[in-house]
């Protein structure tokens, strides 16, 4: 059983010892929430948290922005790197940490060399609020974890009348949610994007690909869709706050403001104020990540070394058909995840890749 060494965001401004955790061993039990609020305030496809035994330090909290998403919860994200870090329950004062900020202790393997400790950061006990999405979101693909059957609920188990969803219903969602063609009625002319507070909104035009288009980001089966994949790298995890970062890959020419102006990317991104509340974080020499400065939702990743593609966090997509996975727009790759060697929730990765 591995032990976390600390909790931290990518830039390190938010840092807490593992003694802040109510349960200092791992995997730490957690519920994965698929509600609209959790997705649209983070950019993730689902949100799962671990319980703390008290409030984070004042030093950490002064480095965060607080966003009261409802009368029930206030959410906190790092002002500098945008990482979702904490949630406070306004009902009982309880504090939670976003599961992705748990850093595991490393095991030494020879002088000057380290390997990550094995095992899972979290143990998902159930999925809830699947009814916030017509397609059930990513939950139907994450119901077999480490030999366990993980139940899925339409809302919360405590208010559910009919118990968890039946396996047949979950299988039906699996079979249909990602296979909807780009010609689906109701898809809409443009794909809308918005964080929860609405401070970061934009539009995406359909793919410009044709029969001769080539590249890893061009779907083979349906050129009317964009390629999508999960990433497990440490940098994505510590700027999102969760262990699975969902990206879709879109040419910069297809992004527009709500006023139909082309969006500027590249080195001039930080100086261009086209999207009112968009903040930027230079996570490395050639990479800029962007997030909402009000609610904290992850929006963009762009690498100056591949300027022909912009990564967009899928959790802020607003499918007109009500689909979290936006299967009518996105072609999901379930053959591979990016940086699997850096995954810290291997059971989730294995479930996603299992067909």
TrEMBL record:
<dbReference type="InterPro" id="IPR006913">
    <property type="entry name" value="CENP-V/GFA"/>
</dbReference>
<keyword id="KW-0862">Zinc</keyword>
<dbReference type="Pfam" id="PF04828">
    <property type="entry name" value="GFA"/>
</dbReference>
<comment type="similarity">
    <text>Belongs to the Gfa family.</text>
</comment>
<keyword id="KW-0479">Metal-binding</keyword>
<dbReference type="InterPro" id="IPR011057">
    <property type="entry name" value="Mss4-like_sf"/>
</dbReference>
<feature type="domain" description="CENP-V/GFA">
    <location>
        <begin position="191"/>
        <end position="333"/>
    </location>
</feature>
<protein>
    <recommendedName>
        <fullName>CENP-V/GFA domain-containing protein</fullName>
    </recommendedName>
</protein>
<dbReference type="GO" id="GO:0046872">
    <property type="term" value="F:metal ion binding"/>
</dbReference>
<keyword id="KW-0456">Lyase</keyword>
<feature type="domain" description="CENP-V/GFA">
    <location>
        <begin position="3"/>
        <end position="130"/>
    </location>
</feature>
<dbReference type="GO" id="GO:0016846">
    <property type="term" value="F:carbon-sulfur lyase activity"/>
</dbReference>
């Amino acid at each position: 059983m591995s032990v976390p060494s600390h909790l931290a965001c990518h830039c390190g401004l938010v840092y807490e010892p593992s003694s802040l955790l109510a349960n200092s061993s791992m995997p730490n039990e957690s519920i994965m929430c698929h509600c609209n609020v959790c997705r649209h305030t983070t950019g993730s496809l689902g949100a799962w948290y671990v319980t703390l035994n008290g409030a984070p330090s004042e030093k950490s909290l002064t480095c965060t922005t607080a966003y009261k998403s409802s009368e029930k919860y206030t959410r906190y994200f790092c002002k500098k790197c945008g990482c979702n870090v904490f949630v406070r329950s306004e009902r009982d004062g309880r504090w939670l940490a976003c599961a992705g900020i748990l850093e595991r202790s490393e095991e030494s393997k020879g002088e000057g060399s380290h390997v990550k400790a094995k095992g899972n950061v979290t143990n998902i006990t159930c999925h809830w609020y699947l009814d916030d999405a017509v397609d059930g979101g990513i939950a139907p693909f994450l119901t077999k974890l480490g030999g366990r059957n993980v139940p899925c609920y339409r809302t919360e188990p405590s208010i559910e009348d009919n118990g968890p969803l039946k396996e047949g219903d979950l299988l039906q969602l699996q079979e249909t949610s990602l296979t909807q063609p780009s010609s689906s009625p109701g898809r809409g002319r443009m794909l809308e994007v918005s964080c929860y507070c609405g401070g970061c909104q934009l539009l995406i035009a359909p793919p410009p690909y044709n029969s001769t288009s080539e590249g890893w980001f061009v779907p083979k089966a349906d050129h009317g869709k964009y390629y999508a994949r999960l990433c497990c790298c440490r940098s994505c995890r510590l700027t999102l706050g969760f262990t699975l970062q969902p990206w879709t890959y879109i040419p910069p020419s297809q992004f527009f403001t709500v006023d139909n102006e082309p969006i500027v990317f590249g080195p001039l991104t930080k100086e261009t104020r086209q999207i009112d509340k968009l903040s930027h974080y230079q996570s490395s020499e050639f990479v800029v990540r962007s997030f909402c400065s009000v609610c904290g939702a992850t929006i963009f990743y762009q690498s100056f070394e591949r300027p022909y593609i912009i990564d967009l966090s899928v959790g802020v997509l607003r499918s007109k058909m009500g689909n979290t996975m936006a299967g009518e727009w996105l072609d999901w790759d379930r053959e591979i995840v990016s940086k699997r060697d850096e995954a810290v929730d291997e059971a989730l990765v294995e479930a996603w890749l299992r067909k």
